[in-house]
Specification:
Blueprint: H1 53-69, H2 71-81, E1 86-92, E2 95-100, H3 107-133, H4 139-163, H5 169-176, E3 181-183, H6 196-212
Antiparallel strand pairs: 1-2, 1-3
Helix pairs in contact: 1-4, 2-3, 2-4, 3-4, 3-6, 4-6
């Protein structure tokens, strides 16, 4: 004795699946897709996260100018705070000779160290200011921060030299007189100090962005059932 055979389903109830993509159920659409949009496409929301590239470039240009101009203040502080290097002029025959009053003094190292410390502080402050004004960061803004720091260091270097003692030490020695101590012109012996500002700015800005910058939304570990949209 055999079991009765199950009759085949009616033709109109057979699956229309022929190996192509399965159409979505009625009423279902992709997350973030407005009703009426084709399935699998995104709406205007989500195509662009944050300001456009043109806005970022404008903000970066403003940041470069602002950071670079603050180098004037760095130059003034360097001129005020850097230790003076004492020089003495002597006459040998009919020639003026200028030499260090303290041959073993470390004032020259102090001049470079003062500039470096000030540049590091300015780099940190500029990074904090830029981060507070625009927390989202972005490649143009980071490049602007580094370029502005380098330009600010160069400007500070030249401003400090301009404000400092005269560059012609022989003429200065003749002016003050034989055997009279006078200050040497400001001189940045270690040119690598010019990179202290942009380096500190980039490192501090990277740290602030990593700690306090905006976070991407965490993906849902439990996807919604097929045919239902997430809340």
């Amino acid at each position: 004795m055999t079991a009765p055979l199950t009759p085949p389903p009616p033709p109109n109830e057979r699956s229309s699946y022929q190996g192509g993509p399965v159409p979505p159920p009625v009423g279902a659409h992709a997350v973030g897709t407005p009703p009426g949009a084709p399935y699998g496409t995104h709406g205007d929301h989500g195509e662009q996260d944050g300001p456009g590239m043109l806005t970022e470039v404008r903000q970066a240009a403003v940041a470069v100018v602002a950071v670079a101009l603050s180098g004037v203040l760095l130059g003034v502080l360097w001129w005020k705070l850097a230790p003076s290097v004492p020089l003495v002029g002597e006459v040998v025959g009919d020639r003026w000779l200028v030499y260090l009053k303290e041959s073993e003094g470390e004032q020259s190292v102090g001049v470079d160290g003062t500039f470096t410390l000030l540049a590091l502080a300015f780099g940190a402050l500029s990074a904090v200011a830029v981060f507070l004004l625009r927390r989202r960061g972005g490649v143009p803004l980071v490049v602007a921060l580094g370029a502005g720091g380098l330009l600010g260091s160069l400007l500070a270097w030249r401003v400090g030299i301009w404000l400092g003692p005269a560059q012609d030490v022989v003429a200065h020695a003749k002016e003050v007189g034989k055997g009279v101590t006078f200050s040497a012109p400001l001189k940045l012996g270690a040119k690598g100090a010019l990179l202290a500002w942009p380096t500190a700015a980039l490192v501090v800005h990277l740290g602030l962005t990593g700690l306090f910058g905006p976070r991407d939304p965490e993906p849902d570990p439990w996807p919604a059932p097929y045919g239902k949209t997430s809340a």
